[in-house]
Amino acid sequence: MIASIAWKNIWRNKTRSLVVIIATILGLIGGTFAGAFMFGMIEQRLGAAVDKEVSHIQVHHPSYPENNEIGFAIVNPDSTCRVIAEMEGVKAVSGRTKIMGMIASANSSGGVQIYGINPEEEKKVTSLYQAIPDSCGTYFKTGNKNQIVLGQKLAEKLKVRVRSKIVLRFLDSTGNIVEAAFKISGIYNTYNDMFDDKTVFIRKSDLSVLLGAPAPVHEIAVYLSEPDNYENIQAKIKARFPGLLVQNWKEISPELALIVDVVDQMIYIFLGIILLALAFGIINTMLMAVLERTKELGMLMSIGMNRARVFRMIMLETIWLTTTGGILGMIFSYILIAVFNHTGIDLSIVGRGMEALGYESVVYPSIDLTYYFVLSFMILLTGILSSIYPARKALKIQPAEAIKME
Question: Which of 26, 97, 98, 401 is a plausible cystine mate for 116, CB 3.0–4.6 Å?
Answer without folding.
Answer: 97
